[in-house]
């Protein structure tokens, strides 16, 4: 069955960096585009970044452009989200998603002093 397992979240100070990972299994990873979403307390889940199946096409929410980078390693069935210059408003649970159906369990990112 399809599984998506995120990791790499944690507590970081403003201006710091984190790299999130999402390891996929149960499907042919290289055939699917992948997305990262986030959900802050009291807010709706929002799309953060998209990457095509080959990695040749990426898109970002305006709020993270220039600070976050999505990438993938199809040999390792993993999609990454490199987050730099983190701000308190980046605090959220971050999820990876395949298509419209499959979500990971999420990883908490907290940006605070």
Report what the structure shows.
The protein has strands at 3-7, 10-12, 18-25, 34-39, 46-51, 58-60, 68-73, 78-83, 92-98, 102-103, 107-111. The chain has 113 residues and is mostly beta strands. It is globular and about 40 Å long. It has no helices and eleven strands. The strands form two sheets. Strands 2, 4, 5, 6, 9, 10 and 11 form a seven-stranded mixed beta sheet that branches. The mean pLDDT is 97.
Element-by-element helix/strand order: EEEEEEEEEEE
Main pleated-sheet profile: 7 strands, mixed
By DSSP, the count of extended strands is 11
Number of helices: 0
Q: Unreliable segments (pLDDT under 50, ≥5 consecutive)? A: none
Structural class: mainly beta
In whole angstroms, the N-to-C terminal distance is: 40 Å
Assembly type: single chain
State the helical fraction: under 10%
Task: Kindly report the average pLDDT value.
Answer: 97
Beta-strand content? over 45%
User: What general outline do the C-alpha atoms trace?
Assistant: globular
Backbone CA Rg: 13 Å
């Amino acid at each position: 069955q399809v599984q998506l397992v995120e990791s790499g979240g944690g507590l970081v100070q403003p201006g710091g960096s984190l790299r999130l990972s999402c390891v996929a299994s149960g499907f042919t990873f290289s055939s699917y585009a992948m997305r990262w979403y986030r959900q802050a307390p009291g807010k709706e889940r929002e799309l953060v970044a998209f990457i095509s199946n080959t990695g040749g096409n990426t898109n970002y929410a305006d709020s993270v452009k220039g600070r976050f980078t999505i990438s993938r390693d199809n040999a390792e069935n993993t999609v990454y989200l490199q987050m730099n210059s983190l701000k308190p408003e980046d605090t959220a649970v971050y999820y990876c998603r395949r298509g419209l159906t499959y979500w990971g369990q999420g990883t908490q990112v907290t940006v605070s002093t």
